[in-house]
């Protein structure tokens, strides 16, 4: 808050004294005095603290700029050529089809930011070069709407052809898609799934890239501290938009980056002040706002606002008129300045007062029009980048002031509609050619011809030399990784395969298996246990001492429970990633570990365990991005199901995660009921990901309900992995064929014999088939025993994965073969009843794959959850044993009537 100056003379004396201090003793002494005064002010409680926002000028002064190490003229020509090819690619596609979309304006604003990085800073993974840790290269997260510019550069590099560019956003109609050879279709945004040798990180969903970059930078520290891979000297770069900073994920982990001292992280925020519909902050200044946010979170902030052409103006401005004018100009007006010509800016900006008018004297309207913002000045950008990589102890953000649609002139520069601008008339194209002095004829311009200099031209020789110096070309994705051996299943889970009726939850079983896997000499160090803030809830406290919780600082305190067996232990080489109450952060950590095989050439195996309701429902977009990035690892949805987490209620009880998981093509989702099933699934998943190196990840649900665990039937492993196996058949005269054994040690048989007799016995030939998964399989088994006591012959199948059965059914339909689930049910008879702890749409997904001519009834937990006991909840939703029995009886009556 500004207050009147009651004694200007005294103020001037203080200012003069401070200036003399700086002149005589330097900046360090001046900072010490300021810190001392600030401490005294706080002690006296005068209610003052420093303003986090600095004047609207460049952080790096002219005299602090390093000498520019490149050929500025060549770099500007290269940037102009890439701008043109990016524009031509988008406009050609839309002239031909009119519906493909694409973006020109975002890359136009960020082109120089990218090019400076490409020519001087972005290091690629050195192929076959023994250059130390840095040879693994930097990680670069590209602003997604700038993808056309990345393709255009790859064209000049010879990595893409003119024919590839001609198939932008035409992935299905490109010759390569149709014939397996020829031009490839270029995807809209960075998508590793669609271009697996090119894009490394998916950033198309706003906010996912920023948080992912932070956790990738932290994971690199994790690898270094655990002495698995030396990542020193490598930098994570993120180029993001100012509008993207509104996403909660973009801001949610800023303090973690500062707390961890991630000076291997540099963000470049392209502040073109504009999003799709209009200004990011029309009535304010987004750069000031972001500076306060980042500085307050503990980041090093570099403001890159004005280009070199402004240096002379600032030098002549002895009264501070420019800084005052900028401080009073909101972004909405700044956008208008970007959209208007030199005459308008002379009259409107420099015409505000005599001081500004004098600064503009002697400048032509064209010179005023060409005054660059900092994000378009390669020399200024280089200075900012150099300062960022040299800074230690903090992550750095560069707030780069740009114009959206830079160089598009009246066709789109700074206009409200520029984000979606995809069409240019002949006059606009010629103006663009002239603006950037492109070596194109009028005919080449109007025909939107791509332009590539000769291979021996100075431009291409310079481009290739720069990239060779930095290790090669990027973006580029690698998938080569040494396979990792998986221990024999019996070595860590024999007790689960032969459980002998012991009571435990599948969560408890998983934690025991995880503890054993961590002890394996080869695989153990590569396992990454991840939790949000529920390790004790999931029974993982015993792992605290076994492998420790990762902390870059170690443990600087004596924990309250230091004397206990399960005391809290942090260590710099700790293995567990405990992310606090941040599912978004935990899934970002999981993604970093799950893609380590590609990003670092080192296979890691992450297990992220969480409340299943807070997975796909809460961070589903991040999981989808991980799938795009071809992640490999395990997601464990604990306390799953709508009735197993009795007292927690509506927002904790998960009835839909398996439905969402089924929509992700490379996610294999399983709902095992027993420890033996879980062991078989984990073993198969590890071998699929680490040995066979398939780009899949597993979602496995776990329950917190203790019940008797049966032995796993030997030989059923392949069926359990495919999604369904025969558990057991039950009849009045006996317990059946013994395929699967009882869920207990004889107690289940006793309960079956003591059930009340049915009011109406079943016909001697009555058969019914029951299918169940997860927690509800125990209810299915109880129902089978009750039905058997009534005279039914009951066939029980354990469904380990509804989604895998459904996918197999679709494949079989295409190939004209019999679905696996139909094959499994071939030896069963009667109506089929399926029950799960999830919405009915989950078991409904296999309806089309079942044997023909048999009725199919599904029971599920549709609706909102609520708090009560498990028994009450299962009765309410109609998935308890009594409800299953009733459904079977009704189905059998219907079957007899139909017959």
TrEMBL record:
Its EC number is 1.2.4.1. The keyword Metal-binding applies. Mg(2+) binds at residues 242, 272, 274. It catalyses: N(6)-[(R)-lipoyl]-L-lysyl-[protein] + pyruvate + H(+) = N(6)-[(R)-S(8)-acetyldihydrolipoyl]-L-lysyl-[protein] + CO2. It comes from the Bacteria. SMART domains: Transket_pyr. The keyword Glycoprotein does not apply. This is Pyruvate dehydrogenase E1 component. Transmembrane segments: none annotated. Component of the pyruvate dehydrogenase (PDH) complex, that catalyzes the overall conversion of pyruvate to acetyl-CoA and CO(2). It comes from Hylemonella gracilis. One of its GO terms (molecular function) is metal ion binding. Residues 733-764 are annotated as: Disordered.
